[in-house]
Amino acid sequence: MPATTSPRSHAAPKRAAPRRKPPQRRRKGKKPDLIRILIPVLALVVVVGIVVNLTGGDQMTKLARDRTPYWVDKQIIAINGTGRRGEKIEGVTDIAIHYTGNPGTTAQQNHDFYDQPETEVSSHFLIGLEGEVIQCIPLDEKSSATNQRNNDTLSIEVCHPDATGQFTQASYDSLVRLTAWLCDYCDIGRDRVIRHYDVTEKLCPLYFVDHPEAWEQFKADVAAY
Ligand SMILES: [Zn+2]
Q: Which of 178, 217, 154 is CA-nearest to residue 68?
């Protein structure tokens, strides 16, 4: 009996072992291959996704994304039918510069003025006397600042301390930085900058109308920023 049981007991493990081992070897061999392929592919997808998200896309996609820098205080006003009509912009070809025409008022005060149902004007951005920047209108919508050019311009209104309309140094520096950033974000040239005056001959921004050399200097500063 011991002689007959021992060959069987030896034979069973010998038969079972080869059957179990090959599938294990195949599984072990396949998993690393898949992982070796999948990890670089997934890494590539993530990297491409990040790059496209940060820099890519056409202008309208980027405008809709509305990703402004950290130094922009986003305070989008309510759609009120006039100041903010909620109409989509057709595309941006130029950045339009304005002054508030209201000496001594702050960016916040002008923002709050825009954000009233009866107000019929607005701008995408306000720059305050201390250089603070407030965004009032989403980048992919029309503001009510630049008349017949509301459909293809982003508008910046700048606060000023007195009736000459001259900007403070802090306001000016912010205006240069914001204008350069917008030109780059919209993939238009740094020279795509206009005055409200160039559209309607309104004396806006007053200081840049009264002092054409200051306007030329501003454009040079934006180009060189
Ligand atoms: Zn204006």
A: 178
